[in-house]
Specification:
oxidoreductase activity, acting on the CH-NH group of donors, tRNA processing, 4 helices, 11 strands, three-stranded antiparallel beta sheet, alpha+beta, multifunctional enzyme, D-Amino Acid Oxidase, Chain A, domain 2, FAD/NAD(P)-binding domain, 28% strand
Length: 210
């Protein structure tokens, strides 16, 4: 689907670039990598998870990284009967390319993306909680946790675990409009949020509520 959408006549894919800075010039947003202009447009949408905090326009968003690790389990003849994702505290997915994906762990403190044994063991525990039948079908008891493969990445979350989507506020005008809240959080300002800019965000959508 992504390949099909990227092939649209109105979409230009610029790959292998590192966007480091946004500059507002006249009515355009310019995306810069060091001293190189990557592209410009009247509207910019920031959809890079917690990495969007590197931009001054979105640096104040209350985003947090949460490490998650998945475990890859080899399919068995019995496990091929699984046709849909099964979710509880964790999830296990149908086999793809000979492997099931199991996960995923939550670690609020680690910044190390190297897969580790402890999280593989936790994921196997999630599997047992999800389904004893699937645990048996996957022959999990016979697997050596030390030999399991997987990967880790960061989720992006907000304080209330809800997505952050929409126009970004003009920070200076925002601080002025809601300055009273810094002294008394019970105040009800009568000013609308001063968005004003055509910079938008869509992030923190990868962690379920609850």
């Amino acid at each position: 689907m992504c390949h099909a959408q990227a092939a649209h006549a109105n979409i230009s894919l610029i790959a292998h670039q590192q966007a480091l800075e946004l500059r507002r010039v006249d009515d355009q947003w310019q995306v810069w990598s060091h001293e190189r202009l990557i592209d410009s447009a009247p509207v910019v949408v920031l959809a890079g998870a917690a990495d969007i905090q590197q931009f001054s326009q979105s640096a104040d968003l209350p985003l947090k990284r949460i490490r998650g690790q998945i475990t890859r389990l080899p399919q068995t003849q019995a496990s091929t009967a699984l046709r849909s994702v099964v979710c509880a505290e964790g999830y296990v997915a149908p086999a793809r390319l000979g492997e099931h994906t199991l996960g995923a762990s939550f670690d609020f403190n680690s910044t190390d993306l190297t897969p580790n044994l402890a999280d593989h063991l936790d994921n196997l525990g999630l599997l047992r909680e999800i389904s004893e039948d699937l645990t048996s079908r996957l022959e999990a008891a016979a697997l050596s946790p030390e030999q399991l493969q997987g990967r880790a990445a960061f989720r992006c979350t907000s304080p209330d675990y809800l997505p952050i989507v929409g126009p970004l506020a003009d920070r200076k005008a925002f601080m002025q409009a809601y300055a009273a809240l810094g002294k008394d959080a019970r105040q009800v300002p009568d000013s609308a949020c001063p968005v004003g800019w055509t910079a938008c965000t869509s992030t923190a959508a990868t962690v379920r509520a609850g």
